[in-house]
Amino acid sequence: LLPQDQITLLNRSILSEEILANLACDIYGMEGEALWVTKYIAQHHILYTSYPRDLLCIGEYNLQLTAACQYSFISFEVQVNLGLLPLERIDTYLSDLHKKAHLERMQTSYTRAKLEPLPKETIEPLVIVNPYTRGLKKLMLAFIEPDAEQADQLYQEAADHLWHIRYYHVEALNFYAKFLQEQEDARFTDIHQQGMELAQKHHYRFLQYRFEELVEPTGLAYDSRNYPLPDNQDFSEYINFLIKQNQARKRGKRR
User: Fold this and answer.
1) Fewer CB atoms inside 10 A, N or C side of the chain?
2) Among candidates 59, 63, 85, which has minimal Cα distance to 205?
3) 125 phi/psi in degrees, rounded to 5
4) How many angstroms separate the CA atoms of 38 and 57, rounded?
């Protein structure tokens, strides 16, 4: 994989170098470097028509941006994490997906399952296309598994399959920790600590908040201002750029 310092030297005006930079950023973002990727895409004012995944990962949420962008799994994730319940919108989105959009259907079904567990007959037909989708499917099955021993196994398997999509690996640990806490299982402390350390290491601020709420519930909503980034990094200028560009794109489509 291209080192990060070499990615910054690539000339994005040259198509081959732009593609190489984007591919490298995708891999770094999945493997836990979402903050570094966000700095890079903000510096270069890279335009996304859907909510940037790396902003989700570092807990940088903006509802105006979700409204300006095209609907996607990521924009629904942001809304759900902010305590909204876009069930009808998600259901419409799922029904409109192409029958072969297996990845997006699995991801969006997972988001919906976090709001309201899906029945097994809805989960089982979802098509596994890689370890990531296998992990999401096992998590959804764990949510509804009545047998504690089998649910425990499903949570462990889900976390293992999600390792290379680090954000969802850590989210799986959060759900597993919550399950162990409810079971009054002594392993809760270790899993909670493991997840909290990873959330802090990778600046997954929403997940850090979720781990904190497990041990000291405040009932307060997540607020990124309570979790300042290193050097008080601020991405508001980039987010405003994305909002304006996507609003202009939508206006152009309506003409």
Assistant:
1) C
2) 59
3) -70, -10
4) 10
Residue 179 and residue 155 in contact, taking contact as beta carbons nearer than 8 Å = yes
Q: What is the pLDDT of residues 223-238, one digit of tens each?
A: 999 999 999 999 999 9
Query: What span, in angstroms and rounded, lies between the C-alpha atoms of 75 and 84?
Result: 11
Interatomic CA distance for residues 152 and 234, integer angstroms:
39
Amino acid at 38: T
Q: 3-state class of 62 per DSSP? A: coil
- What stretch of H or E contains 202? none
Cα separation of 36 and 57, whole Å? Answer: 11
**Residue 244 has which token pair?**
């304006």
How does the average pLDDT of the chain come out, rounded?
97
Cα 33 to chain centroid, rounded:
13
